[in-house]
DNA sequence: CTGAATCCGATCAGATACTG
DNA sequence: CAGTATCTGATCGGATTCAG
């Protein structure tokens, strides 16, 4: 059974890979995390997500909407008002994403130590090669 | 408590974001999934992962090694033999990744339907605009 | 306010050639 | 076998401008 689950990873063009690439992109995780709390407007999202450009937020939201993870609601008022909300499907994804973020939170110190050790080892090797 | 966990997502430069970008990249997930089964050699990984170039596999493995997720072992024989194995830290990450892949497997049909509906709706709107 | 469209520099990643 | 180095086309993404 486990073997069946992991069969996917040998094929480049399979559906799972496409979806993984989508939900693993830079801003999608953040958008989903924020919308899980509550419905938000475009400008609210832009203000909350530090570093995102207007263009990339728009692109990200369109992708999420297309995949059925986010619902876009246009209110016919002036000035325009557009609300973004997580769909039920998006909510189930959020549960999975949450475990990923929690793991990162718990292990970031461990990883920082590993990086320092690696960098120190590489630097030491380069000194050996530089002065033979 | 939930609020603390999700505090991270408003800052672009925080450690968690860097780590997420790393483990969410195109090939890392596949490498970790394969190495969880058993230790593998460079060429074995390359053959198993459809579509990866030699360069990108090397880069991915160096990143994972630096983060302490993968261990690289060089055997001083000819021809050269290099084994890659998941570290204990990498193994804990695999558990999290697995839930992500399982979610994708379970919902890929749902997403495919949503995409079709979205594309059809966009196409219909464009027809309305094209022939007024 | 919420976008769409365009331009353009930066980065990424594949192909190729070379090495121990 | 297991890489490194280099070149180059492709893609990404930010800044800017315009529109409903």
Give an account of the 3D structure.
The structure is a homodimer of 132-residue chains. In chain A, helix 3 (28-37) runs antiparallel to helix 6 (88-130). Chain A has helices spanning 2-5, 15-23, 28-37, 42-48, 54-66, 88-130, and strands at residues 40-41, 70-75, 81-86. Chain A contains six helices and three strands, in the order H-H-H-E-H-H-E-E-H. Helices cover 65% and strands 11% of the residues of chain A. In chain A, strands 1-3-2 form a three-stranded antiparallel beta sheet. Chain A has 132 residues and is mainly α. At the A-B interface, helix 2, helix 3 and helix 6 of A face helix 2, helix 3 and helix 6 of B. Chain A binds a DNA duplex (20 and 20 nucleotides) through helix 5.
For the biggest β-sheet of chain A, the strand order reads 1-3-2
Series of secondary-structure elements of chain A, N-terminal to C-terminal? HHHEHHEEH
Strand residues, percent of chain A? 5-15%
Radius of gyration of chain A: 21 Å
What's the β-strand tally of chain A? Answer: 3
How many DSSP helices of chain A? 6
Kindly report how far apart the N and C termini of chain A lie: 54 Å
Task: Show the largest interface.
Answer: A-B, 54 and 54 residues
Shape call of chain A: elongated
Reported for the largest beta sheet of chain A, the result is: 3 strands, antiparallel
The oligomeric state is: homodimer
Mean pLDDT of chain A: 87
Task: Give the helix proportion of chain A (percent range).
Answer: 55-70%
Structural class of chain A: mainly alpha
């Amino acid at each position: 059974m486990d073997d069946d689950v992991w069969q996917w990873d040998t094929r480049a063009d399979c559906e799972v890979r496409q979806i993984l690439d989508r939900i693993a992109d830079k801003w999608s995780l953040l958008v989903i995390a924020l919308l899980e709390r509550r419905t938000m407007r475009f400008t609210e999202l832009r203000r909350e997500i530090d570093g995102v450009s207007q263009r990339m937020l728009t692109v990200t939201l369109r992708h999420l909407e297309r995949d059925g993870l986010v619902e876009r609601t246009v209110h016919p008022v002036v000035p325009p008002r557009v609300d973004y909300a997580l769909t039920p499907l998006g909510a189930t994804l959020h549960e999975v994403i949450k475990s990923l973020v929690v793991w990162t939170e718990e292990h970031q110190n461990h990883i920082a130590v590993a990086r320092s050790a690696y960098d120190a080892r590489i630097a030491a090797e380069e000194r050996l090669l530089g002065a033979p």
